[in-house]
Design brief:
Elements: H1 2-13, E1 28-29, E2 46-47, H2 62-84, H3 100-110, E3 112-117, E4 131-137, E5 140-145, E6 149-153, E7 162-166, E8 169-174, E9 178-180, E10 189-199, E11 203-209, E12 214-220, E13 223-233, H4 249-269
Antiparallel strand pairs: 1-2, 3-7, 4-5, 4-8, 6-13, 7-10, 8-9, 10-13, 11-12
Biased composition (Basic and acidic residues): 243-270
Biased composition (Acidic residues): 66-86
Protein name: Large ribosomal subunit protein bL21m
Amino acid sequence: MASRRCLRALTKTTPFLFRSSSSLRSLTVPPFPRAKASSPLFAKPASAFARWPHPRYFSSDKRSDEDDNSEEDYDDDEEEDYEDGDDYVAASRGKKVYTAEEKEAEAADIGYRVVGPLQKDDDVFKPYEPVFAVVQIGSHQFKVSNGDSIFTERLKFCEVNDKLILNKVLLLGSASQTIVGRPIVPDASVHAVVEEHALDAKVIIFKKKRRKNYRRTKGHRQELTKLRITDIQGIEKPQNAIKPEKPSKSTKKEQEKVAKKEKEKVAVTA
C-alpha cells in the first residue's frame, strides 16, 4: 500500500515518467528546453535504470496480481482438501478434540468409566451397608463406603448427574472378610454419581527475591468434582443384624420398684 501511494504521488507531480504502456516502466530523464541539438549530452534520453540491466517491477504490475491470485487459489485448495476428508476433525484453538475411543482410554487410565446420565427411574441410592473400599482415582486414594461423598480433581468427559464406575479398587473390607488387591482387586467396582463440578478455595502463590525488586503474586483455584458413592460390588455383604431395643427410663424405674417390693416381701416372711 505504501508503494502504491508513492507511485500516485509521483504520477501527480511527474506524469511524463510513466507514459509507456508496458508492464516494465522505465524512468527516463527528458532533455532541458534550452539545450542545443548539437550537444551530445542531450541527444538521446538517458534511462534512469541503465546501470541495472535486470528488470524492475512495481507493486501495481500484472505479474504481482497474478501471483497473489495463485496463492489465494492454493490456500482455497488446501481448505477444500481438509474439509473433504471424512476423518478430519476441526480442533479449536488451544483445545484438543478427542474421539470416543480416546476418551474411554484416557478415562480408564485415570480410573473410571462413564456409564451415562442418571435417569428418573434409576434407584441408585441405597441404604447404608457395612462395607468399605479403597479406590484410586488418578494419583489419589480414597476410603469410601455406601453413601459417602468425595472431592476429586476435575474429571474429564463427564457432566453433572452422570453415572460412573470406578475400576481401580485396591482393597475391599467388611465385618467378616478383607480382600487385598495385587494391586487391583479383580471383578470389583465402585459405583458413583457426579453431583457437581466446583472450585476449591483460593491459594495465594507469592514469590520474592530479596534485593532484586522481584515480587510476584498469583492466585489459583483447583477445579474439583464431587462424587456420591452409591454401591460397592465384589464382596459379600453381611446382613444387618437386628439390634435389641433399649428399655426406656420409665420402664427401668418400674422394674426397680418391683424388685424392691419383692425384696421387702422376702424380708417380712423371713
